[in-house]
Amino acid sequence: MTDQHVHDHQHLLDEARLAAQATYSPYSSFPVGAALLTAEGDVVRGCNVENISYGLTNCAERSALFSALSQGALPRTFKAMAVYAPKVPLISPCGACRQVLLELMAPDAVIVCQGSDPAATRTWTLDQLLPGAFNAF
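That's the Cytidine deaminase sequence above. Prediction below.
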């Protein structure tokens, strides 16, 4: 995707940066923040929340999506998400998050990802993140 996509979603990236400040990551010391754009134009933040039983950890992307749904947003209407991780040059959603994004985001949604190197920022479509996915929609 183009630099224009990054510019169009700079506000979301700023919100994802703020979300990363709320992380609970004492085991990995790897903060991640996400900001989700709803169909109504609202932004819902999420951060990673770890647990000593690592399988119970929740990623920032899923935290934002689940929070939005908990607040009454409708699935498959979310327009975009920004993901930010300050300790790597570029971040991308894990496999579990990719599957959840595919099911809960709007089909034409974009995912903007940024790490410590703003020049490495990437924007992906859901098809690019999870090509050939099993999809019930």
